[in-house]
Amino acid sequence: MNKVMSNKWVIALYVLPSLLLLGGLVYIPIVLTGYYGLMSWDGIGEMTFIGLDNYSRLLQDSTFWLSARHSFLLALFSTLSLIAYLAISLILSARLKGSELLRKIYLIPMLLSSVAIAQLWIKIYDPNNGMLNSLLTFLGVENPPAWLADRSTVLIAIFIAIIWQYAGFYIIIYSAALKGIPYSLIEAARIDGATPFQIAYKIKIPLITGVIKVTIILAIVGSLKYFDLIYVMTGGGPNGASEVIASYMYKEAFGRYNFGYGSAIGFALLVLALLTTWLIQKLTASKDELQY
Amino acid sequence: MATVIGTKQKQHDRNGIRRLGFILLYLFLGLIALFQIYPLIWLFFFSLKGNAEIFGRSPFALPEEWRWDNYLRVWTEGNINQYFLNSVFITVTAVLLTVLLASFVTFAITRMNWKLNKLVLMLFMIGYMIPIHSTLVPLFQFFLRLDLIDNPISIILAYTAYNLPLTIMILVGFYNTLPREIEEAAIMDGCSIHRIFFQITLPMTTPILSTTVIINMIFNWNEFVFVNTFISSDRYKTLTVGIQNFIGQYLTDWGAIGATLMISIIPILIAFIFLSNRIVEGIAAGSVKG
C-alpha cells in the first residue's frame, strides 16, 4: 500500500504542472521585477543597467510618496472599519431571526466586479443626476460636494464604495468564526449572569483573535494592492488626489512605458506588503493561543 | 401582594425595553441591508430609462416606460454579446483547469507519501499573498515572447496560476477531514492510483468542488487587470474590460450604461440566488484557514 502511495512518478505527474504554473507565472516574475527595477527600459528597446537609480529616484519621487500616503490611509480606514464589521457580526451571532438572510444581502456587492461597482458609484456620485446629491438636495443641503471631482472629498468617496464592496466579506468571515464557538460556553456564561455585552467582549472576541488577525492582514495588504476600483472610478485623479501605489505603478509601466521604473514601484509594493504582513504577525503574536 | 404586582410591573417594563431594543436593532440591520441593496435597485431602474427621463426627472422615480430595448441595443450594437461569450469561454476553461489541477495537488499533498509536501503547500500559500502588480511587467514580457499577448491562452494560464493557491487552501481543509478508509481499501483491492483519484476521491469531494468552482467563477468573471493589460483586440476582450471601453464611448447614455452593467452582473446574481450557501462557505473556508 505504501508503495502505491509513494510512487514518485505519480507525485510528479500530479504536482508538477501546477508547480510549473506557480513558479513560471508568480515566483519567477517576482524575481524578474526586482531585476527589471535595476534597469532603464522602455519594454521594446535595449535594457540599460542603472544600478539602484530607480530606487533612489523612488525615494525622492513626491508622486510616489503621495500615492503611498493614500494607500496607507486606505489601509488605516479599512482596518478601523473592521471594528464596525465585527460589531455587526456579534449582533448577528446573537441568534437573531433572519440573520442568515441579512448576512447574504450584505455580501451581494462583494460578488460584483470592481469595474461594475466603480461605474455604478460614478453614477451615484454624479453631481447633477446622481442619487447621492439628489438625496442631499432633497434633505435641504445646499451646494453638496462634487465628490469624485473634488480633491478634498475624492478619497472618502472612494472609501465609501470600498466599504460597500467589502463589508459583507468581513461579516461572513467573522460570522463563520463566531459560529465555531461552542454554544455551551456562551450558555454557561449567561447562567452565571453575564450580560450580552460581557459575553461578546470577554468570551467571543478573545476566542476569535486568530481570525481577527487574519482579517487585519487581509484589510491592510488588500488596501496596499488596491487598484481596479480606483483606476476605473478616478484614474488616480483629480490631479493625483486619489493616486495609490498600484495605480501609479500601472501608469508608469503601461501608460508611459517606463518598464524599469514601473518594476521598481511594483517591487516596492511587494516589499511593503510582505513587510506589513510580517510586522502585524510580530505585533499581534500571543504566547498562547486561546483554546476552547 | 403589592410587591408581587411591583415585580410584575418591572418585568413588564423590562420586556418593553427589550422589545424596543429589538426593534431598534432590526432597524439598524435593515438600514445596512438597504445601503447594500438599494444602489443595485437604482441601477436596475436607470437601465430601463431614456436620457430625457434620467436628466429631467428625479433619480428615484420608477421608469415611466420600461425600455427593455436598452438591453437589446447594447447587446448587438455595443459588441456586448461578443464580450459576454468571451467571458463565458475564458471563465469556464480557467475554472475547470484550476479545479482539476488543484485537486491533483491536494490529493498528492494530503494522501501520498513524500518529503517535500509541506514545503510545496507553503509555496502555494505564500503565492496567495503576492500582489499582481509586482509581477505584471515580467508577465507581460513573458507572454509577449511566447506570442501569447492578445491571446486568451495568456488569460487562462494567468487565472489558473493565481487562483490555484486559494483553491488548494480550501480543498486541503476538506481533504483533511475526509476518511481515508475507502481509498485504503481500494489499494488493498489492487486499484490503480489514477482510478482511486478519479473514481473514488474526486466524486467524494463534489460538495467542496462546487464551492471552489463558484468562487473561481466569480473571481474570473470579474477580473480586470490581466485582460486590460494582455488583451488589446475586441475579439478577445471579456465583459469587465469590454464594458469599460463601451462606457468610454457612450459616456452620456445612462440607459445604455446601466443596461451593460446589468448584463455583466446578472449571471453573478443568478449564481448567487442558487448557490449562496456555497459562496458563503467558500469565503469562510478560504480566509478562516488562511
Task: Summarize the structure in words.
The complex is a heterodimer of chains A (292) and B (290). By secondary structure, chain A is an all-alpha fold. Chain A has a single domain, classed as MetI-like (MetI-like fold). Chain A has helices at residues 2-5, 8-36, 53-60, 62-92, 99-107, 114-124, 131-138, 154-179, 183-191, 196-207, 209-224, 228-233, 245-255, 259-283, and strands at residues 39-40, 48-49. In chain A, strand 1 and strand 2 form a beta hairpin. In chain A, helix 4 packs across helix 13 (245-255). Chain A is globular. Chain A starts with a helix and ends in a 9-residue tail after the last helix. Chain B has two domains: 2-46; 70-289, MetI-like (MetI-like fold, Orthogonal Bundle). The mean pLDDT of chain B is 88. At the A-B interface, helix 1, helix 2, helix 4, helix 5 and helix 6 of A face helix 1, helix 4, helix 5, helix 6 and helix 7 of B.
Structural class label of chain B = mainly alpha
Uncertain regions spanning at least 5 consecutive residues of chain B: none
> Whole-number radius of gyration of chain B?
26 Å
* Poorly predicted parts of chain A: none
Q: How would you describe the shape of chain A?
A: globular
- Secondary-structure class of chain A: mainly alpha
What is the global morphology of chain B?
A: flat
Main sheet characteristics of chain A: 2 strands, antiparallel
Number of strands of chain A: 2
The helix fraction of chain B, in percent, is: over 70%
CATH architecture type of the largest domain in chain B: Orthogonal Bundle
Question: Which fold name is given in CATH as the topology of the largest domain in chain B?
Answer: MetI-like fold
Order of helices and strands of chain B: HHHHHHHHHHHHH
Q: Assign the CATH topology of chain A.
A: MetI-like fold
The proportion of residues in beta strands of chain A is under 5%
How many helices of chain B in DSSP terms? Answer: 13
Fraction in beta strands of chain B: under 5%
